[in-house]
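Students often ask why inverse folding is considered easier than folding. One informal answer: many sequences map to the same fold, so there is more than one right answer. In these notes we will look at a single instance of the problem. The structure comes first.
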């Protein structure tokens, strides 16, 4: 058993980090509900005064709104994107020893859920331009015996699943970063997440959308300790989990859905402003960014590729601009190295991971803030 004790060195470091984060003139992100805070406070107060704060009518309304937006029959709200992905894997029968194709260039959760299901992630390298999975890097023979496909819409860039749907295996679409991005594509289940830096924020939480009744009924039961429709109170048909969303979270999400077109348009406009401000550097080959799948992308973050990324990052941080490297490769992180993965296995992902830098980006970032970020980035590159 792990034992955690008070550590004065850690407390000192944490205190300094708190002060340091507060000193950034421009933070990395801010949640999308802030411009509507009065509406959020009113909506959450209504839930609190009702006394029904867990898995009630507000969650049901949120689920229906998300399903309608996605164009699916079912929406199942859960506690996180990780929980949603895991439930969908289990709903598709993924278990011990099964191989699931996914990407090494993502937040680690997209691979962790495969391991939690006692299956094995089978990584495919990524496309140099879109940052999404490049199926051409997989040998044809590799596809035999694959039990599921879990692609990721990296940074909100939707991945076209048509090729994998032809293979006849379940497609579980990790759209945790792409709520609002549009692409007509087949899937068995799709998961949107609503963490504070996402396009739509509920604090924590996510929603599974699907047209598959079996997947929907499984996820509905298993998110709530295995209780299916018809079970008596406190009786369960399965050994399930506690992966529920609260009405408070759903109320925050509904407020943003009421303003969704405005939020989406602002994010798209802000990404465009970045490309305009950095256009000269792009033409000079000093910065590069992800190629979008189509003209209907709602960006999650705005990243650039630069040489000497870590030095550029330190310059920005020292000048009050918060930024972070996005993403470190999953296969090179400690638990996956211990599974036998190592440098050189997925060279495109490794190259991009060493060069990408996330710049400040949120729905209501101002044009002046974008100009300041870009000006500071130019100074960093010149330095």
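Output (designed amino acids):
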């Amino acid at each position: 058993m792990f034992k955690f004790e008070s550590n004065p060195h850690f407390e000192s470091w944490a205190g300094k980090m708190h002060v340091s984060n507060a000193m950034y003139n421009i933070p990395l992100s801010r949640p999308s509900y802030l411009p509507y805070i009065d509406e959020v406070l009113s909506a959450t107060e209504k839930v609190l005064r009702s006394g029904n704060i867990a898995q009630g009518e507000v969650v049901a309304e949120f689920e229906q709104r998300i399903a309608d937006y996605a164009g699916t029959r079912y929406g199942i709200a859960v506690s996180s994107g990780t929980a949603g992905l895991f439930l969908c894997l289990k709903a598709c029968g993924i278990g011990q020893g099964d191989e699931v194709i996914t990407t090494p260039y993502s937040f680690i959760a997209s691979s962790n859920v495969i391991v939690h299901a006692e299956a094995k992630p089978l990584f495919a390298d990524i496309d140099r331009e879109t940052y999404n999975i490049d199926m051409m890097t997989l040998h044809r023979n590799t596809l035999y015996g694959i039990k599921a496909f879990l692609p990721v819409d990296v940074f909100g860039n939707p991945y076209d699943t048509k090729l994998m749907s032809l293979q006849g295996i379940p497609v579980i679409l990790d759209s945790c970063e792409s709520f609002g991005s549009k692409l007509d594509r087949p899937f068995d289940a799709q998961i949107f997440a609503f963490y504070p830096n996402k396009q739509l924020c509920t604090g924590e939480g996510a929603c599974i959308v699907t047209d598959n009744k079996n997947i929907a009924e499984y996820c509905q039961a298993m998110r709530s300790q295995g209780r299916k429709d018809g079970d008596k109170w406190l009786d369960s048909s399965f050994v399930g989990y506690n992966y529920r969303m609260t009405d408070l979270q759903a109320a925050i999400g509904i407020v943003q859905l009421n303003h969704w077109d405005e939020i989406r348009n602002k994010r798209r406009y802000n990404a465009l402003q970045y490309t305009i401000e950095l256009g000269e550097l792009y033409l000079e080959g000093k910065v590069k960014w992800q190629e979008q799948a189509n003209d209907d992308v709602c960006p999650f973050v705005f990243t650039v590729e630069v040489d000497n990324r870590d030095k550029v990052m330190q310059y920005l941080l020292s000048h009050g601009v918060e930024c972070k490297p996005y993403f470190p490769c999953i296969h090179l992180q400690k638990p996956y190295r211990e599974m036998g993965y190592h440098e050189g296995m997925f060279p495109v992902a490794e190259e991009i991971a060493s060069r990408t830098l996330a710049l400040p980006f949120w729905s209501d970032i101002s044009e002046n803030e974008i100009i300041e970020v870009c000006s500071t980035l130019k100074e960093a590159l010149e330095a």
